[in-house]
Amino acid sequence: MTDPTGEVFISYNHDQKDLAVELDLRLREHGIPVWRDERKIGPDPLESQIESVLQSEDISGAILLVSEDILDSPTILNVEIPQIHARHKNDDAFFAFVLRCPGLSAGRVSDILSDTTHVDDFSEWFFHALEMSKDNSPNYNQVVDKVIQRRLTALVNSEPDTDTIRCSINSYQSPNPTDKLWLHADLSHHFEDDRLPIKKIWNNRIRETITRLTNHLADHAEGKTIEFTGRTRLPIAFAVGCQYPTTRGIHAKWTQQNPNFNEITWDVTVPSSDAELSVNSTLKDSSKTDLAVYLSLTDDVRPEVGNTASDLPDFNTEIELKRTDYDQEITPEQGLKIANAFQNTVRDELNTRSNIETIHLFQSSPVGLSFLLGQHTNTLPPIQTYALNDSHQPRRYEPAILIQ
Description:
Blueprint: E1 7-11, H1 17-29, E2 34-35, H2 37-40, H3 47-54, E3 59-66, H4 74-90, E4 95-100, H5 106-113, E5 126-129, H6 140-158, E6 164-170, E7 183-186, H7 199-219, E8 225-229, H8 234-242, E9 251-257, E10 263-266, E11 277-283, E12 290-296, H9 302-308, E13 317-323, H10 332-352, E14 358-364, H11 367-374, E15 383-389, E16 396-403
Parallel strand pairs: 1-2, 1-3, 3-4, 4-5, 6-7, 6-8, 8-9, 12-13, 12-14, 14-15
Antiparallel strand pairs: 9-10, 11-13, 15-16
Helix pairs in contact: 1-6, 3-4, 6-7, 8-11, 10-11
């Protein structure tokens, strides 16, 4: 019986390695664990190894990247395609995508597949083209969308009584695919050697990935709770929270380990409690259109903001929400109080300063609280988030995701 939370096998000729590698990355970014030979067992796997992998219940589906080159690969023609076909034929939960490379016609794909031994019927496979996008690069997102839809549909069908969709989002290290989560989003390759990505990656890749992933989850969330987990940067957790504002009608929460390795869950449905929070607002220049918000919740953000000052705009007003005791752990109940205070304080300032166009957010907080804060941003103007650069000396903030 196929495990619908399992990995997706990518079959490809190594002349198409660049396409396969990028497809591998895009799928893993969106939470789809992938089995690709070079990452798993090396560039020249034995046919018996491939057979064993494709017969495993831990492989939930397969993508066959079709190019002229597969005609030169006996392993693909005589092992991978027949094994994929057998799994698909005998197990309704296993899916198979035929993905034709750019420039290859549908008719030519049929001709190539006709050379496969022991297989003569591909009528129930999903056939798709890896089309070129406007910038003349392959449109991987079309493929990602179809694979996510197929995976989530299979999971809903296999667990019709479940009331929780669980998804991890990770930017510090690759997730463990043995955890039985619906999706394992792996963004860690954008942060190799603890380096922060450039602004273009934050917005054109990471933000778009978060939007696509959270929208797919929302499509399957009727009557269910979406539970996020994982070790990730604060701007990412905040951006995920922004996708599920309290007005959207979707119950989403974030579970993480506290410093004592106990799991705590940040959830808008818990009762709030006093957070011993000080709130200050300082007018700087009423002619300016940028508002600074400093969330000093686990540490003081001001020193690092000061190290960044030369790269920041002049602010109209600076708001600071600061806890009086950083050593005291923040509870989810206090977190909700902080999130409400953040929302109300910012809205009050916007009502006073009608010319504010952009909010600049600097935060030091638990990742789950950052998610909760994001859920309290509906109707606010664009928010420029910042990530703390620990590798820079002195430490400073750098622009991250722009929430629009």
